[in-house]
Automatic annotation (TrEMBL):
Main location: membrane
PROSITE patterns membership: MFS
Single annotated GO MF: transmembrane transporter activity
GO cellular component: plasma membrane
Organism: Cryobacterium arcticum
UniProt-listed CDD domains: MFS_YfmO_like (cd17474)
InterPro entries to which the protein is assigned, alphabetical: MFS (IPR011701), MFS_dom (IPR020846), MFS_trans_sf (IPR036259), Tet-R_TetA/multi-R_MdtG-like (IPR001958), YfmO-like (IPR053200)
Comp. bias regions, Low complexity: 1-18
Subcellular location per the Swiss-Prot or TrEMBL entry: Cell membrane
Protein name: MFS transporter
Length: 428
């Protein structure tokens, strides 16, 4: 589907293209197809946090080490990241709807298989299959929402990030509640909800618009050669290390503090996810109306690094560590939205190609973090993973600052000729 980029605001602080809805248009007034995909996104993103509260239970019941258990995240995110590079090639040939449905169907099958597994190695393998389905769905969903939503790119991305935040918030809570019965419960619950999402896409996504031009297999890799997109993708890789240390390692840090039950962990990360959703939807747009996107990143990335460092200092204090998790959620919500907006505006590439390139790189960062965190904790102290995550976030900040001259289009600070070329080309 093709949708032209909105004209850029005048060059200067706060200027950017495609921000906000036109006058009189509410972000909630969207086509039915957008709501169908957004609903399925909520369910898909639940899969990320669903296993979080049951990690200690899986480790105990299946006699697995923390590092082995963290591989549930790594296999999922590694396959997701690699597959992301090829989703635009596939969806441009078989269509967005079919790609979405194949992705959801794979998630249903592999989630059921994980719930029926008898050892941690099998679950790790089935989570990899789950990651393949996740890649097909998530990358295509973002491009579909951006292409079909009313109100411009920013409104579409806010909806997408709201779905992400809501899914990540509900996932741990549902995982904790079902996990209090059995660690298998969250897997079966996720498969059921994904089946509901599958039906929603079949029923509500009636049309996909004009058939897209087939994308070259090399397109997402070539896209990373674009300086703006390459810088943002590299920064997201290091940022995602911080994100997933907070999400995947913290449950093990909370176990010695008496908060290791599935319900307790579910409640902690429900609060984290709600915080993420709130700032994604309300705070990020407020900040980007007042300053350029790159300046928002300059402001919030060091705050996240500080939060992670404080988590390391307070790793033996239950209240302090939980507060750091909640504050981290607030900061991550802003960063997720602003980074995604920046990527969608950084080049005149088709949305699906930009999304595939960026998502592929950033998920690889998430794949590294969980097992690396537990290995660092084993070799040094339980605080070390948080310090390493803080350092990684500072690397992301450094990349954004050093690459600032290549991020003018992401900020909306483009000249009239560049903007006219972007509008003429259109965005898929």
């Amino acid at each position: 589907m093709s949708r032209p980029t909105a004209p850029a605001a005048p060059t200067g602080t706060g200027a950017r293209s495609g921000h906000g809805a036109p006058a009189g248009t509410s972000i909630l007034h969207q086509p039915t197809a957008v709501w169908a995909v957004a609903f399925a996104c909520v369910i898909a993103f639940m899969g990320i946090g669903l296993v979080d509260p049951i990690l200690p239970a899986i480790a105990a019941d299946l006699a697995a080490t923390p590092t082995e258990t963290e591989m549930l995240f790594t296999s999922y995110l590694l396959v997701t990241g690699i597959a992301m590079f090829f989703t635009s090639w596939l969806s441009s040939r078989i269509g967005a709807k079919r790609t979405l449905l194949i992705g959801l169907a794979l998630i249903v099958v592999f989630a059921l298989a994980a719930g029926l597994s008898q050892d941690v190695e099998s679950i790790i393998g089935f989570r990899a299959g789950w990651g393949l389905g996740n890649a097909l769905f998530i990358s295509t969903a973002l491009a579909t929402i951006v292409g079909a939503a009313a109100g411009g790119t920013s409104s579409a991305i806010i909806l997408y990030e709201a779905a992400l935040g809501l899914g990540i918030a509900i996932g741990p809570l549902l995982g904790g509640l079902l996990g209090s019965i059995s660690w298998r419960g969250p897997f079966f619950g996720s498969a059921t909800l994904m089946a509901v999402g599958f039906i929603a896409i079949v029923v509500l996504l009636k049309t996909e618009g004009p058939k897209p031009t087939p994308t070259r297999l090399s397109a997402p890799f070539r896209a990373l050669a674009r300086p703006g997109l390459g810088i943002l993708a590299a920064a997201a890789l290091f940022y995602n290390i911080g994100f997933f240390v907070l999400l995947a390692y913290t449950p093990f840090a909370l176990v010695p503090l008496g908060l290791g039950s599935a319900v307790n962990l579910g409640l902690v990360f429900f609060g984290w996810g709600i915080s993420l959703a709130v700032t994604s939807v309300w705070v990020a747009p407020l900040l980007t109306r007042r300053m350029r996107r790159s300046r928002v990143l300059w402001l919030v990335l060091p705050l996240l690094a500080l939060d992670l460092a404080v988590a390391g200092v307070l790793v033996a204090n239950a209240v302090g560590l939980v507060l750091c998790v909640i504050v981290g959620g607030l900061l991550l919500g802003v960063l997720n939205t602003v980074l995604t907006e920046s990527v969608m505006e950084a080049t005149d590439l088709p949305r699906s190609v930009a999304s595939s390139s960026y998502s592929g790189v950033r998920f690889l960062g998430g794949a590294i973090a969980p097992p690396a965190a537990t290995l660092l904790a084993d070799q040094f102290t339980s605080a070390t993973p948080f310090y390493a995550a803080a350092a990684s976030v500072l690397v992301a900040l450094l990349l954004i600052v050093l690459g600032r001259r290549h991020l003018a289009q992401a900020d909306g600070a483009v000249d009239e000729l560049e903007e006219a070329q972007a509008i003429g080309a259109g965005d898929s």
